[in-house]
Amino acid sequence: MSDTERTPVVPAQADAPMVETLPAREPLLEVDHVTLRFGGVVALNDVDFTLYKGEILGLIGPNGAGKTTCFNAMTGIYQPSEGQIRFRGEKISGKKRHQITQLGMARTFQNIRLFPEMTALENVQVGADAHHRTSVVSALFRLPRHRREEREGREKAERLLEFVGIRPRMHEFARNLSYGEQRRLEIARALATDPVLLCLDEPAAGFNPAEKEELLQLIRQIRDTGVTVLLIEHDMRLVMGVTDRIVVLEFGKKIAEGLPAEVRDNPKVVAAYLGVPDDAA
Ligand SMILES: Nc1ncnc2c1ncn2[C@@H]1O[C@H](COP(=O)(O)OP(=O)(O)OP(=O)(O)O)[C@@H](O)[C@H]1O
């Protein structure tokens, strides 16, 4: 895929046309009857759903429902025992992590994974470096092309830090950033690979209500630049406020899928969240 097919998330895009609120119905990621077992544990049981281009999809469910396993299967960490996952029409199975990144998928992790001894700027530049084309020779001798890419990478990293709201902290070591700033930095680093799909694994974990609200705004801004977003979350209220559609897992099975209001009123979902037995819901 050429770089021009991607929509980079940088402030230069701020005046780009807004994506329609209604999801475009072009499939981007297809989870096709996926079952995934760990020994005797069926972490995903015939899970089937599609993520459409331009939407914010919430993947929710109580603890142990299979959300992270589903994410890990989508991002190539686990291979499904049965079924398959397609991203932009291509099978994910058998692809290496960097190939999936090159295809345009980026993710953040439930437990923050930054380089603590690098600055915020350097952490983002590492992401942007994935797209550099210069050879080792060019880098070693600092040929003009390499120098230009280095400069562009830095400018892009600065714009991304501005976009996520932590540019004033760009020279700070990642370990010195506040928890909320580190979460934003993770998002900036993921965006540096110019993804078409950004997968966020519980990005609001540990946030207070004000921080959650700010994060929702950031997620909307990301979507408005043309990036499709998949959001794992178990805070139902948070998901309701930002997603176009929601898929609900419980014990590895999809128990509901639909618009936020439909999902919220679904008795199975209410039961799953309140721990009410199915037949009493
Ligand atoms: N590597 C693994 N080996 C064995 N079992 C696993 C592994 N990863 C996940 N599981 C099991 O698979 C099931 C689904 O776990 P998963 O972490 O995907 O749930 P989750 O919905 O992300 O939960 P949480 O909200 O607590 O993060 C659980 O029963 C879990 O114990």
UniProtKB/TrEMBL annotation:
GO terms for cellular component: plasma membrane. Pfam families: ABC_tran, BCA_ABC_TP_C. The keyword ATP-binding applies. Residues 29-276 form the ABC transporter domain. It comes from the Bacteria. GO terms for molecular function: ATP binding; ATP hydrolysis activity; L-isoleucine transmembrane transporter activity; L-phenylalanine transmembrane transporter activity; L-valine transmembrane transporter activity. Keywords: ATP-binding, Nucleotide-binding, Transport. CDD domains: ABC_Mj1267_LivG_branched. The keyword ATP-binding applies. InterPro entries: AAA+_ATPase, ABC_AA/LPS_Transport, ABC_transporter-like_ATP-bd, ABC_transporter-like_CS, BCA_ABC_TP_C, P-loop_NTPase. GO terms for biological process: D-alanine transmembrane transport; L-alanine transport; L-isoleucine import across plasma membrane; L-valine import across plasma membrane. This is Branched-chain amino acid transport system ATP-binding protein. It comes from Micromonospora matsumotoense. The lineage of its organism: Bacteria, Bacillati, Actinomycetota, Actinomycetes, Micromonosporales.
